[in-house]
């Protein structure tokens, strides 16, 4: 029986009203799917992927979903979003058309294809809303199972809020940890490793997660027999079933067309997860996909006649109709009236969405047509311009590209005429107005962005000596962080009991507890996911990936989810996650990689910081905790035992982000590097000075953002020569650094010699003791590279070495 949240039994009349409301939502959603496909096939939209066939289970999920809860789902959950009041008919079609106005298309303002849903967690100024007062959906992504790691973190946040005291503003993010994180996934995508990694981690952590698997037996055209052992995901997950004295899951199964049983099942799942923080898997089977996978194909090509007939009979909306008639909820005539009204409302909503989308563009079309006609009157190319104007004006449903292409082509015809000024000004203004609709919010545009943080120098005692292990500076700074920020927590492989593999967290778990300084299993993707989900709910997580090479396990989550989050929600969601790792210059193929080129090009949207020592690294952590942006901090693996001065102001000194540091002034050549390699550069510079070559050394400190004050080019203006030293492969990060200096900073203006790079070999170092020396730049390599650059300038002063 459907019950109110007060657990009082509804009267039959109330029950009837609620069921009819649910049916109306389902049929509206179905009509949106049907009409949406037509819009794609007639060319008004580019692509469509819809939730038809999944309507009824999503209604049940919506009933159990409460304010403060979070959804982390995939691209077929339109009925759920409608049922919780976060998606209207007009918004559905605005998403299909890719409307770039967030007031009309609040999910992503056209940055994601339709079917990708999000709610707004932030106010206009970037501050948090009260998430406990609204139903929340984290922003969807297309990569299958990519929503799973984030789901884990969203659920873990409830556990943190329930068990960790003293978190500031906790009441804005959680009602004593009673929120559920609701996941949805298609049955075929349960084959992905991210699904299994997340399922295992949630069972270990015992977090309030309800995972719905929508099972329609197919993954695009591929049947479940090719996807899943025993063709049954709940069957093969039986071993996760929670027993009296174990962790694990409650596993529930329900038919996707059985409205009454779905309601009961979801109520039961919510009760288990919300009260006891036990994860629940709901396997929703016997679902259908009436229009096939997407608008790009037809399921008649891969389903036989028997299957198609079964799908028609057991369509969940049809079955709900039959059930309603059978128990006298509604007569066939009443249902027909609801269906007719739904068709009318969907058609009206579609028309309203199309008009809202096309009318502003049509106005811009008319504006340019008029301008071109005026310009043509005095142009020697009048006929050609009028042809462009006529062709543009004849386009029934123009897009912005067609308008701008026309303007730019006509500009070439009036380069030496009076009309040039008006047209060029129009193009510049139109491009500036339009471009931001496609390019804004990759990084924070609030007052809490990384550039708002000012440098605070470490304070030292007068007799301070360089006699402190770098790892102790990190440790004591983390101690200050955990005291200053009760919402901060760190987790990773070996981070807890032993205080990380390099002792940078020594004693922190004992002092702050196992929830705030936590060991986790060997599962990098979901370590990142834990961080993303918790950051989405107002916590300040630091996700630790033990070594830089292991980041490859998590790079897809970083790239597709975290790096794009602010962009794909147009600044309406944020996850200021700090990712901590360590790397560079260790023995062996799997512990010595420096894939910086891959990283910086895969995760635009995340800052990449490369401190040369632990004081710098600690300063970065202090800076980032005052910002609202995600970042990756790569500590030098061979720097934990190197000696540094002990600061007095732990937790307060701040390393500026995007600012380089000159470690040595010089006049002959500028050497640019970062991280561990800088120590080799400094050694080589001393030796070069002995032969009369005076090098200037620049520590980049951060790769994203890059030298915001353009100090590197100021150095080149003095030395007129540039060498970039990098332990990534040839053409890796060094290519990016050169592009920034030569192209973005116009460094070519000041060069008297060819800018050059010195990188690692194309392979990774062998394990043997000499592997590093023969694979990555050494101080001798640096010396000789600089020497030969100077040999080119003055061969008599610097004769050939070999």
From TrEMBL:
E1 component of the 2-oxoglutarate dehydrogenase (OGDH) complex which catalyzes the decarboxylation of 2-oxoglutarate, the first step in the conversion of 2-oxoglutarate to succinyl-CoA and CO(2). GO terms for molecular function: branched-chain 2-oxo acid dehydrogenase activity. It comes from the Bacteria. Keywords: Oxidoreductase, Pyruvate, Thiamine pyrophosphate. This is 3-methyl-2-oxobutanoate dehydrogenase (2-methylpropanoyl-transferring). The keyword Transferase does not apply. One of its GO terms (biological process) is response to nutrient. The keyword Oxidoreductase applies. InterPro entries: DH_E1 (IPR001017), THDP-binding (IPR029061), Transketo_C/PFOR_II (IPR009014), Transketolase-like_Pyr-bd (IPR005475), Transketolase_C (IPR033248). Pfam families: E1_dh, Transket_pyr, Transketolase_C. Its cofactor is thiamine diphosphate. It is an enzyme of class 1 (oxidoreductase). Its EC number is 1.2.4.4. Residues 468-642 form the Transketolase-like pyrimidine-binding domain.
């Amino acid at each position: 029986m459907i019950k109110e949240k007060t657990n009082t039994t509804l009267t039959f009349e109330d029950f009837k009203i609620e069921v009819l409301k649910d049916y109306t939502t389902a049929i509206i959603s179905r009509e949106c799917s049907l009409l949406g496909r037509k819009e794609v096939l007639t060319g008004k939209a580019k692509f469509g992927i819809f939730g038809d066939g999944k309507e009824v289970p999503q209604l049940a999920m919506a009933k159990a979903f409460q304010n403060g809860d979070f959804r982390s789902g995939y691209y077929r959950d339109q009925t759920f979003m409608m049922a919780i009041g976060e998606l209207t008919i007009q918004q559905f079609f605005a998403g299909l058309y890719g409307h770039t106005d967030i007031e009309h298309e609040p999910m992503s303002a056209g940055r994601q294809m339709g079917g990708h849903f999000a709610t707004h967690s932030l106010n206009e100024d970037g501050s948090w809303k009260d998430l406990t007062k609204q139903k929340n959906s984290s922003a969807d992504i297309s990569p299958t199972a990519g929503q799973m790691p984030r789901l884990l973190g969203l659920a873990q946040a409830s556990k943190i809020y329930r068990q960790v005291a003293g978190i500031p503003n906790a009441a804005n993010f959680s009602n004593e940890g009673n929120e559920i994180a609701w996941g949805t996934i298609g049955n075929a995508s349960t084959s992905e490793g991210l699904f299994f990694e997340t399922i295992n981690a949630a069972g270990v952590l015992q977090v309030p997660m309800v995972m719905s698997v929508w099972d329609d037996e197919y993954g695009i055209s591929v049947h479940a027999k090719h996807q899943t052992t025993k063709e049954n995901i709940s069957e093969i997950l039986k071993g996760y079933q929670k027993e009296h004295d174990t962790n694990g899951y409650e596993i529930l199964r329900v038919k996707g067309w059985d409205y009454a049983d779905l309601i009961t099942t979801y109520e039961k799942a919510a009760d288990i997860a919300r009260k006891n923080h036990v994860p629940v898997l709901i396997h929703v089977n016997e679902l259908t996909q009436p229009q096939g996978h997407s608008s790009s194909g037809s399921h008649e090509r891969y389903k036989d006649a028997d299957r198609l007939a079964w799908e028609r009979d057991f369509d969940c909306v049809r079955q709900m109709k039959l059930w309603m008639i059978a128990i006298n909820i509604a007569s066939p005539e009443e249902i027909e009236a609801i269906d007719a009204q739904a068709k009318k409302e969907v058609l009206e909503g579609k028309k309203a969405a199309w008009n809202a989308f096309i009318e502003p563009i049509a106005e811009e079309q008319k504006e340019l047509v008029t301008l071109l006609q005026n310009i043509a009157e005095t142009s020697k190319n009048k006929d050609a311009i009028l042809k462009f104007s006529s062709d543009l004006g004849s386009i029934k449903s123009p897009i912005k590209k067609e308008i701008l292409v026309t303007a730019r082509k006509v500009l070439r015809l009036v380069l030496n005429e009076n009309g040039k000024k008006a047209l060029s000004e129009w193009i510049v203004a139109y491009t500036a107005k339009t471009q931001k609709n496609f390019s804004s919010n990759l990084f924070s545009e609030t007052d809490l962005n990384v550039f708002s943080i000012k440098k605070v120098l470490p304070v030292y005692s007068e007799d301070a000596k360089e006699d402190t292990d770098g790892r102790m500076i990190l440790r004591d700074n983390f101690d200050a962080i955990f005291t200053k920020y009760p919402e901060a927590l760190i987790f990773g492989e070996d981070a807890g009991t032993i205080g990380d593999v390099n002792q940078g967290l020594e004693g922190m778990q004992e002092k702050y507890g196992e929830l705030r300084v936590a060991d986790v299993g060997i599962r990098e993707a979901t370590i990142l996911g834990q961080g993303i989900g918790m950051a989405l709910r107002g916590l300040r997580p630091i996700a630790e990936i033990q070594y830089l090479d292991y980041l490859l396990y998590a790079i897809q989550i970083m790239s597709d989810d975290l790096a794009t989050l602010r962009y794909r929600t147009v600044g309406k969601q944020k996850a200021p996650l700090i990712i901590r790792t360590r790397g560079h210059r260790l023995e062996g193929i799997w512990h010595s990689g420096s894939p910086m080129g891959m990283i910086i090009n895969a995760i635009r949207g995340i800052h990449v910081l490369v401190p040369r020592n632990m004081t710098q690294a600690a300063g970065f952590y202090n800076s980032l905790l005052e910002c609202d942006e995600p970042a990756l901090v790569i500590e030098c693996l061979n720097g934990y035992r190197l000696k540094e001065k002990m600061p007095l102001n732990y937790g307060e000194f701040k390393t500026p982000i995007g600012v380089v540091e000159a470690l040595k002034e010089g006049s002959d050549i500028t050497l640019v590097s970062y991280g561990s390699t800088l120590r080799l550069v400094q050694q080589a510079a001393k030796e070069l000075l002995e032969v009369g070559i005076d090098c200037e050394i620049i520590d980049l400190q951060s790769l994203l953002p890059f030298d915001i004050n353009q100090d590197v080019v100021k150095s080149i203006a003095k030395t007129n020569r540039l060498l970039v030293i990098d332990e990534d492969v040839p053409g890796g990060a060094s290519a990016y650094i050169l592009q920034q200096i030569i192209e973005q900073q116009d460094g070519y203006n000041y060069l008297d010699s060819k800018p050059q790079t010195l990188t690692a070999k194309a392979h990774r170092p062998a394990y043997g003791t000499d592997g590093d020396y023969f694979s990555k730049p050494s101080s001798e390599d640096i010396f000789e590279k600089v020497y030969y650059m100077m040999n080119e300038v003055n061969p008599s002063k610097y004769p050939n070495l070999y």
